[in-house]
Amino acid sequence: MKFPGIHRLCIIVLVLFFSLYPASAQSRKQLPDFWDNMPHEELADRIVSAMTDEELLAQMLMFGWAGTDPSREVIRWVEERSLGSIKIFGWNTDNTRKVAESVTLLQRKAETGRFRIPLFVATDQEGGWIRHIKGLTSETPGNLAIGASGLPSDAWYSGYYIARELRAVGINLNFAPTVDLYTDHDSTIIGPRSFGEDARAAGILGMAFSQGSLAAGVLTTAKHFPGHGHTHSDSHGKLPVIDIDPETLRSRELVPFRYLIDSGVPAIMSGHLSFPNIGGDGKPATFSPYLLQTLLREEMGFEGLIITDDMMMNGATEYAGSVSRAVQMAIEAGNNIIESSTTPGFQDTLWTGNLTRMKQSSGFRDQVAGSARRIILAKLEYFKDGKNSIYPDMDKIEERIPDREGESFFLSQAVRSVTTVRENPAIPVSGQSILIAGSFSSFRSLGKQRFPEADTAGINNSLPALARRYDTLIFCLANRDNLSILKEMENSKTNIIVVSILSPVLLNEVPWVQNALAVYSYSPWSFIAAFGALAGDFKPDGTMPLKDMY
Fold this sequence. Notes:
Layout: H1 4-30, H2 40-50, H3 53-60, E1 61-63, H4 72-81, E2 85-87, H5 96-111, E3 120-123, E4 125-127, E5 130-131, H6 143-149, H7 152-168, E6 173-174, H8 199-215, E7 219-225, H9 246-262, E8 267-270, H10 289-299, E9 305-308, H11 314-320, H12 323-333, E10 338-340, H13 349-360, H14 362-383, H15 397-400, H16 404-417, E11 419-420, E12 434-437, H17 441-450, E13 455-457, H18 463-467, E14 472-477, H19 480-487, E15 495-500, E16 515-518, H20 524-534
Parallel strand pairs: 1-2, 1-10, 2-3, 3-6, 6-7, 7-8, 8-9, 12-13, 12-14, 14-15, 15-16
Antiparallel strand pairs: 4-5, 11-16
């Protein structure tokens, strides 16, 4: 039986299908792909030209999330809006393998986007005090300890081994080194995160740290431009105002950044910091076209990425009035990547307000497109150099973290950093009764390993009375609470040896302490080095990286 009507209908359908399919396939084929084989500059131009306003703006954004697993919201931002970058914070990282799994998941989502652009995956792994990727990663002596040794090789290898651990979990961008100068000794936000007070030394050490990290395959970020060290205010809580003149800024704060720029640092972080005597308007650096474009870009010649500090910090939002306005101002000032510790909703004004502005202002849209191009070009240069993989190797995480070579190095670095603060460091004499007191259990346990005959105790109000029963007290000074207990023992007949960790400036308030060492961190390697010095294994030859210390 023949069905001429149906036959004709099938022919029509097939003709329509094959006439439409090649055009659709051709249009998809013409869409630029991140992995196309062509010069980076040309490919970046093609991708940006093909992007929607939404895709351009999303490429500038970097979001974090709460919890160990990526939230549904951040997954949607990557999957449906082609988010450009993510940030791993300390609250995501107790399980090292889980971090690698999260990075893998989000990078696979990014790979399904129209242009298949990988994510920048960032964190803060400065070493020492700031260690956002926790879990199995190394606790290192940190920047002030590097400043005490004064060796660029210590800075280089610190950056190198820290980066090798980051690479193992898929992180490709580190918000380090911190090159803020420790000129305000009352600072509790910078402190031992700094290499010290000397601008030239900080520049050389920061440059070496950056080069070591790049050698291990992780991009670096010098921070916090133009300098967070000369204030004890914390931009998380309020906007710090730094009242220095242009000459001081150029001869001091900017010196380390010049070293990093000259060495090709890939990124610089703008700080929520007001310099009322610089540029004339007192705008935070994050929102200052003068500081970011005139000074950083034009005068200093920086060509890399400018990344904001977290836009959820009060130092930014209180000045701008809202997060949406803060993002707009940051874009207009010249930032390329806008960091947020939280993931906004899909209809948040951070997104809708700035999309609307893109449609209303061609100049604003051009700024967004220019930043998107700069980001994509940086990604092309990083991911397509044949060395840097997108995904972590899940089978080798436990083998690579902690880095076994790094452990040996960090112990030797800690030894080189130990500093005799007072001229007469006493060594516990065999046969004496010894009490080891500290807030850190690792300090007490490592001390006990080195001096098995010693007793241990925490630091609390009962310690002064307890210490009187011992010939020698080895006291770990970490903070002002510890300091208040130590002050109660000024007239004690017990031989008191203070091991200062983190900032050594607290020692200035106890000039009566005759025996003191500084080790600058609560890394176990720093504790081992301190007890090794007290046991006479070596003579400390670290140099105090701060001025005006007793």
